[in-house]
Amino acid sequence: CGFLGERICRLLLEEEQGLAEIRLLDRNSKPELVQSLQASTSQTKVSMFEGDIRDSELLGRACRGVTLVIHTASIIDIVGAVDYSELYGVNVKGTQLLLEACIQENVASFFYTSSIEVAGPNPQGDPVINGDEDTPYPARLKFPYSRTKQEAEQLSLRAHGEPLHNGGRLATCILRPMYIYGDG
Fold this sequence. Notes:
- Residues 1-184 form the 3-beta hydroxysteroid dehydrogenase/isomerase domain.
- Keywords: Oxidoreductase.
- The protein is of the alpha/beta class and 184 residues long.
- The protein has a domain at 52-175: NAD(P)-binding Rossmann-like Domain (Rossmann fold).
- Helices cover 36% and strands 14% of the residues.
- The protein has five helices and five strands, in the order H-E-H-E-H-E-H-E-H-E.
- A three-stranded parallel beta sheet has the order 3-4-5, covered by helices on one side. A two-stranded parallel ribbon has the order 1-2.
- The two termini are 12 Å apart.
């Protein structure tokens, strides 16, 4: 659970009454974070699943009984310091496996945190007015990070409306935050 994930958890605990449980998934267990989050609420259970987003069994367990997944995990690299296979594995394959787990476990809603980097520079400098997912926007993505986030977005868009085993359909939403900063 990184900077953004932790902040989302804290906001949910502050704002959402009747929230039964928040589940965190991270490669490195952070017992102090779970304790801190749990101490801020008497109603909501806070659980940690330790492991890699590329572990489909772990994802299945983490998604079992869940109604909403907020996916903030990624490797951010705009300077080429991370091997492309690692970047692709976490950002694209991890997203694909998480979407598959959501479908398998009847998760109703999936929020994917992308990046403004996906919009890339528009070589013509044309403005986008009232654009949506189908609005053409020629962009030249310069960094592997941007390309992996764009590919993960496409996976999320394609998964929207996928049938769930319980008769429902998966709803997906993609957010493209600008640069994120703050204490912590």
